[in-house]
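Supplementary Methods S3. Complex input for the zinc ion-bound model.
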Amino acid sequence: MDTMDRLKKDLVETGKFGRTPPRRIERYDQLDPEKGVTRPAGTEENRKVRDYAVERMREAGLTVKIDKVGNIFGRKEGSKTNTGTVMSGSHLDSVINGGMFDGALGVFGAIEAIRRMNDEGFENERPLEVAVFTAEEGSAFSPTILASSVLVGKMGVDEAWNRKNAMGQTLGEVLENIGYKGSFERSLDDVEYFVEMHVEQGPILDKEGLSVGIVENISGMMWIMLTILGSENHAGTTPMRIRKDALVAAADIVSFVNKRANDLVEKLSAAIVGTVGRLNVFPNVGNIVPGKVEMVIDIRDVVQENMASLKNETLKAAKDIENKYGVDIRTQLTSLHLPVTLSNEVINMIDSSARQVGIVPKRMNSGAGHDCLNMVKRTKAGMIFVPSVNGISHAPLEWTNWEDIEKGAKVLTQTLKNLSRL
Ligand SMILES: [Zn+2]
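Predicted complex, serialized as structure tokens:
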């Protein structure tokens, strides 16, 4: 079997896990727009894909260890001692009804890189390690990038174990159930480099007809929760001019966020986005003037100051809207992840490795968060992107063409080889 067929086989075989009915999908036209892949952390389907990956790691000669929060590490020692490890990997859990490449590509791509080095008899000087991170998606346990947060010391093991899914099971319980509650304590002190290959999950590479991207920055994300208090009243008997309609005020805020984000794209940053994706309307009844609305504003950019300026302008607009409609608006910052810049050394290494194998990569940013967001806190970390057809991900129609996957795998392999001899 040639090398591409090997990686393709891993993705096609594991693409069956969490798909109902389980089907091998090798071409875009075989995708069912309604039936994607569902394998949240700790489920039986998640166990199957983990078992499959562990088997492939052992076949490739890696020594496999599982840590307390179910992260999997497959290690190949290097010819030199006292050198920092080069780690590569991603996650194997999925969103509900997602795609077969998100996460899995980074895991099986890293395993394939090791197999290619084995085939060539390549001698790595630094140790190489493939990593699988538990519960990246937040589809079963919140917050997202959960177990890599434990790995980098942002969250305690007990706190992670006690997180509950929608069925009320804890992460500790489900890991125990699927046989992935290990005892290994992986300190990152010896890990020098981390590289994650991932599907872009956006339209840029696909639109420009390019195969490989190098991520320079990962967007930060901010959630502002707004509660608008008006006065609930009869829709038939309450005259227009005395109403305090919370939903009308909310509508102005939704429009403001959208319009202002559009303006800032021109003025400040092409990467800035502002979204209102959720409204809770009370009492949400057709013949009652809405008395209360809860909404979440999601703001992202690669520059923290830009995020702050969209936030501040929105809060100022909310003040004006408050006066205009006689409502009371309360705001609360509920989530804040700062943008991160990935390692220049790794970015440059991915760039030169790509050119070494005849591929010209595009420097770009990531709008989505990844385990790399955590790893960059403790290691020199970088990311390789391959295109998402039509920019779709976290959906059944997520797809990446096999030729692009092969190019990504070539770049990843060359990068890991070069880093392992630095
Ligand atoms: Zn992912």
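The pocket of zinc ion is lined by residues 91, 102-103, 136, 198, 370 (CB under 6 Å). Residues 215 and 378 are 18 Å apart (CA to CA).
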